[in-house]
C-alpha cells in the first residue's frame, strides 16, 4: 500500500502534468472556430510550434514581406477568407495573398516549402468561396485569392481551327460565367458545365464539374486539353495528356492536393443561341429512371438531361407557369401534387435560330418524348436564350439574396450511386428517410461513363465502377436559429442517416465534393486509387502544404503536435 506521502506526490505529479497539458493545448498563435451540429462553436487548440517556427508563424509579415511580388499580402482583412458557401466552418488564415501573376503564387508556395517540414504554414487556393466544409480555408496559413489572377479570354486567347481542336486558355481564377460570355462572342462555348456558373475554373476542375451535359461530354475535367499548375514545391509546370501527364491527371479532380491550377485550356464547340426547355413529371421511380437511362443511351438525344425529386409540394404546376407553358392547360390545372412523391425529368434541346429549322427541332423533340412514360398532363415547355438557360441558378441566387436566405448554412450531400443500386436506394431514401423536399432541391440524373473519354479513369475523381451511375445531390439550406426540420441539426442527421443506410445496404456510393474527418475514411473513399493518390501527393506536395481544408494529409508539424498531445494524455 502506498504511503500518504507518495500518494500526495503522485497526485501532485498528475496535477502538474494536467496543468502542463492544458497550457500546451491552449497556447497557440491561431484560433479557429468550427460550427457543428451539436454546438454553436468549438474552439480548436493545439500545442505550440518549435521556438524558431513559432517566431516565424507569429509574425507572417517578417516571413513574406521580403518576397518580390507583383501582387500583395493582406494580414488584417482576412475574415472573408475564413468563410465559404457552406457557412459551417470558419478557419481564419494568417494572411491572404492577392496575386497579380502566377509567379506570385509560385514564390509564396516555394517560400513555405523552403521553410521545411517543421513549418506549420499551409496554403489554400480560394476561388469564389463555394466550398462546403472549409476546403478553401487555411487555419493560420495563407489563402490565395485566385480571383485576383484573372485574364479575360477576349484578350486573344481563343485558339484552334475547325473540328474538335478549338479551345480557350483561361485563368484558374476566372469565373465560368465570364468564360461563357467571352466565348459566345466568337460563336463558341465549352462543352460541359456545372449548374451554377459563378464558380472559378480552377475550383470546379479540382473537383470534377458535373451538370446535365455530362451524360454526353463527361464532367468538365473530361474536356480539358492542358493545365498550368503550381505544385506544392512552388514549381510552375505546364501539363497535358502528353506532357507531364501524371501531374495533369493528378490535378484533375484532385481536390487541390497536388497543385494550384493557374491556367486551363478548355475544349470548345459551336454554341447555340436558343434552348427548348422541357419538364415532365413521374409518380413511378422505375419509369423515371428507365426513361433517363434510355435517353442517355441514344446517339441523338437531348443536349441536357437532369431530374429532381419533389416531395409533398403544394401547387407545383401553378408555380411552373411563371416560366413554362403547359402543353394542355386544362389537364395541368387539374393535377394535384399535394402529399405525393414525384420525379421531374428536365431536358433541353439546343439550337441556332439563325440556321436551324424550327419545325425540324419540334419533330426531333416530339420523337424523343413519344418514347417516354411521363404523366401526360404535366408536360411543360419554355423557350429561352442559351446564356439565360445556363445561368438560370444565378437568377434564383439573386432572389434568395434579396430575402437574406443565401448566406445560410448549406449542409449539402452530393453522391454518385451505381446504376444497379439506384432503385434500392430510391425506395428507402425517398420512401422513408427523406419525407420533405422543402429544404432545397434534390437532384437526380443518370450518367453513362461508356460515352466519356476513357482518360477519366486516370484522373483523381472517384466514381462507382459501373457504366451507368446516378448523380444524387441533396442541396439543403438550413435556417440558422431553427431546431425543427429546417434546422442544421436535423438536416445533418438526415444526411448521416442516408450514409448509414447506404453503408449497411452495400449501395457502394461515392461522395462527390467529399468530406471526411479521418485518413481511414479517405482511404475508404479512394479505395484502389488510394495508393496512387498517396504516391502522387508525396511527389508533387511532399510537405502537405496545399489544400489543408480537406484534412486528407497532415503536415509534419501537425503530426508532431498530435504525438505530443497523445503522449501527455497517456501520462495523465
TrEMBL record:
It comes from the Eukaryota. Gene3D superfamilies: 3.30.465.10, FAD-linked oxidases, C-terminal domain (3.40.462.10), Uridine Diphospho-n-acetylenolpyruvylglucosamine Reductase, domain 2 (3.30.43.10). The keyword Iron does not apply. It holds the Pfam family Cytokin-bind. Residues 1-32 form the signal peptide. It catalyses: N(6)-dimethylallyladenine + A + H2O = 3-methyl-2-butenal + adenine + AH2. InterPro entries: Cytok_DH_C_sf (IPR016170), Cytokinin_DH_FAD/cytokin-bd (IPR015345), FAD-bd_PCMH (IPR016166), FAD-bd_PCMH-like_sf (IPR036318), FAD-bd_PCMH_sub1 (IPR016167), FAD-bd_PCMH_sub2 (IPR016169), FAD-linked_Oxase-like_C (IPR016164), FAD-linked_Oxidoreductases_BP (IPR050432). Its cofactor is FAD. Its EC number is 1.5.99.12. The keyword Glycoprotein applies. One of its GO terms (biological process) is cytokinin metabolic process. SUPFAM superfamilies: FAD-binding/transporter-associated domain-like, FAD-linked oxidases, C-terminal domain. Residues 89-271 form the FAD-binding PCMH-type domain. Keywords: FAD, Flavoprotein, Glycoprotein, Oxidoreductase, Signal. One of its GO terms (molecular function) is FAD binding. It is an enzyme of class 1 (oxidoreductase). Belongs to the oxygen-dependent FAD-linked oxidoreductase family. This is cytokinin dehydrogenase. It comes from Linum trigynum.
